[in-house]
């Protein structure tokens, strides 16, 4: 499925122009659906400052949350790549802060993930390991692992992710992060050590049985650590997208 071309199309919604995949099934797993706007008749007042709307004070909808505000409470236009908007769109103060923080992921961490890092990879409980380059696919839907062999992990089929730091082992309580993507378990963080590896559990295509994948930084450990830190941020966005 990763080889299917991802065509794009330009669509106009009430919120603005969006560049979306021609086939909705190939949306980025980081993407968010457009919210339903609160109907005009249900918001006679600003949902932030409670100012009453009239001919002078017009109502505006936040493109991220869909709620209704006056111009003062919904004046910022901020880029919203998670909804595929072409141009910055109007957002309330609360949503604009969230969107601005996410821009760092799209401007920095996403590029790191696409560039990849080198790891020693162990599949399942095998004693055999292989040095492989791991990177995020251009459509953000897969992790590509390339070495003497090649295989892919679809992000939507990852059930748990554990980022290891120097001096920790899989399963220890003081791991840097643990993020459950499918099972709705808790997200916790701790420690300031450099990330050194990752432990994944995922379900291969056509199987309901979870497979374990362990990756340990190889060669350029700084690049690998930056890649793991970016993957940590990506996991948070994935968790949020699935809970919307």
Automatic annotation (TrEMBL):
SMART domains: FYVE. One of its GO terms (molecular function) is zinc ion binding. The keyword Zinc applies. InterPro entries: FYVE-type_Zinc_Finger, ZFYVE21_C, ZFYVE21_C_sf, Znf_FYVE, Znf_FYVE-rel, Znf_FYVE_PHD, Znf_RING/FYVE/PHD. The keyword Zinc applies. SUPFAM superfamilies: FYVE/PHD zinc finger. Keywords: Metal-binding, Zinc, Zinc-finger. It holds the Pfam family FYVE. Gene3D superfamilies: Zinc finger FYVE domain-containing protein 21, C-terminal (2.30.29.160), Zinc/RING finger domain, C3HC4 (zinc finger) (3.30.40.10). Residues 40-95 form the FYVE-type domain. This is Zinc finger, FYVE domain containing 21. It comes from Xiphophorus maculatus (Southern platyfish).
């Amino acid at each position: 499925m990763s080889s299917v071309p991802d065509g794009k199309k330009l669509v106009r919604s009430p919120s603005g122009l969006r560049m979306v995949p021609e086939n909705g099934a190939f949306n980025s797993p980081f993407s968010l659906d457009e919210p339903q706007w609160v109907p005009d008749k249900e918001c006679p007042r600003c949902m932030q400052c409670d100012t009453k709307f009239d001919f002078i004070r017009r109502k505006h909808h936040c493109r991220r949350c869909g709620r209704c505000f006056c111009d003062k409470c919904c004046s910022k236009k901020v880029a919203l790549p998670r909804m595929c908007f072409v141009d910055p769109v109007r957002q309330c103060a609360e949503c604009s802060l969230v969107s601005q923080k996410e821009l760092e992921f799209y401007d920095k961490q996403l590029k790191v993930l696409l560039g990849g890092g080198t790891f020693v990879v162990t599949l399942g409980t095998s004693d055999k390991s292989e040095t492989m380059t791991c990177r995020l696919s251009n459509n953000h839907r897969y992790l590509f692992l390339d070495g003497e062999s090649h295989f892919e992990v679809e992000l939507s089929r990852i059930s748990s992710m554990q980022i290891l730091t120097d001096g920790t082992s899989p399963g220890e309580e003081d791991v840097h992060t643990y993020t459950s993507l499918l099972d709705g378990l808790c997200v916790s963080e701790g420690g300031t050590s450099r990330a050194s590896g990752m432990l994944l559990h995922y379900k291969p295509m056509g199987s309901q049985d979870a497979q374990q994948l362990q990756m340990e930084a190889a060669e350029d450990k700084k690049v690998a650590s930056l890649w793991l830190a970016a993957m940590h941020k990506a996991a948070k966005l994935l968790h949020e997208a699935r809970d919307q």
